[in-house]
Amino acid sequence: MSEESIRKEIFKKVEEFHRSKKPRPFVPGKTPVPYGGRVYDEKEMVGLVDASLDFYLTAGRFAKKFQEEFSKFLGVKHCVLTNSGSSANLLAVTALTSQKLGKRRLVPGDEIITVAAGFPTTLNPIIQNGLVPVFVDVELGNYNIDIVKLKKAITKRTRAIFIAHTLGNPFNLDEILKLKKKHKLWLIEDCCDALGAKYQGKYVGTFGDMGTCSFYPGHQITMGEGGTVTTNNPLLYTILVSLKDWGRDFINDPKKNTEKKRFSYKFGKLPFGYDHRYVYSHIGYNLNVTDMQPAIGLAQLKKLPAFMQARKKNAARLQKFLANYEPYLMLPTVLPKSAPCWWALPLLVKKNPHFTRNDMVLYLEKNLIATRPLFGGNLLKQPAYGHIKHRVAGSLENSDTVMHSVFMVGVYPGIKEAQMQHIINTLKRFFYAHRIL
């Protein structure tokens, strides 16, 4: 048999294996309802095996194909695939410190505006690059940056804005793009929880200078671990690829026949003809994926529209039910031009004499319905950030409210009708137990 024939036989067996796995029946109160997770079938498994049979191991044909397809999906020119969304954030911020940017380069001590109520990997690259995070409060309901406070936070030291579309709910891009233009700021959109969300009919991650994404199992699509940085800026793209590949200066460009000219250049103080595969223009990292990850991602990407619809349906169903209890809960709010792709649904427990956020969370968890806080709450209250150099612009009272009163529940595609009904029934019992009919 030929290699191709053997592959096809293996793929058939993989498909048979997947079909042989019988899903466990859902038993309310006995079967856990996760807040997020993998949703896949035989196509992802075949892709994974296909890549493993190549045994290329590092980024190869599947990585190249995924970058092309992901760029097409979002409508951007360039996509750099990384080993995680956290690495994508690190790459994006570090790229702004490149000497290749000339006067627009960020240097230690420059300020980047972010929010206090968020996830550490939006904040960490700012600190790791010797830059100063400026913390601005969020608005309750949408949990995105407060535009009024953002405007007041900008000073002569402000060089960039790096914020997330919180839980897949787009922030006010109209206002932020005006500020970006007026003050000549860089804008990085953290879309790690927001793939598929739109603003004015356009995907988030395509408005700023760069957008980042994550493919961790709980996100809109998964490849286990993985992430991307996308950009329409060719110079930023060159910098990102260099930083991802050890800081290597060389980028293979078939149009310029660079591979055949490897020994034909003079770089800095290096001798003429030094192999340009080993010339380094940045202090970089190795943040490559294995080819098995994008092999899974390609199958997931084809399912993304259906996943987006399922998240929207689950979120709408839950919000319709919870609207009956708005005296006690603040439901999420959305800007008129936004079309969220919910990663999870945030709920704020208002002050009332009947129950607290912790009461509600413990009751749901007891009934095997997973919950999460809104990430780190007010990050400045976290142990890791007690002594960092930073600036706070205005009060962070809403960030503190998020820390004390907000939690989220899942709406991912793995939550089917039976699981959703269990969530609703459990919430009904909770409200009834607290004399709320």
UniProtKB/TrEMBL annotation:
Presence of the UniProt keyword Isomerase in the record: no
Domain of life assignment: Bacteria
Cofactor: pyridoxal 5'-phosphate
Keyword terms of this UniProt record: Pyridoxal phosphate
InterPro entries in the record: DegT/StrS_aminotransferase, PyrdxlP-dep_Trfase, PyrdxlP-dep_Trfase_major, PyrdxlP-dep_Trfase_small
Pfam families in the cross-refs: DegT_DnrJ_EryC1
Keyword Iron-sulfur: no
One BP term from GO: polysaccharide biosynthetic process
GO molecular function, one term: transaminase activity
Family membership: Belongs to the DegT/DnrJ/EryC1 family.
Alphabetized PANTHER family for the sequence: DTDP-4-AMINO-4,6-DIDEOXYGALACTOSE TRANSAMINASE (PTHR30244:SF34), TRANSAMINASE (PTHR30244)
Name of the protein described by the UniProt record: Lipopolysaccharide biosynthesis protein RfbH
Source organism of this protein record: Candidatus Staskawiczbacteria bacterium RIFCSPHIGHO2_01_FULL_41_41
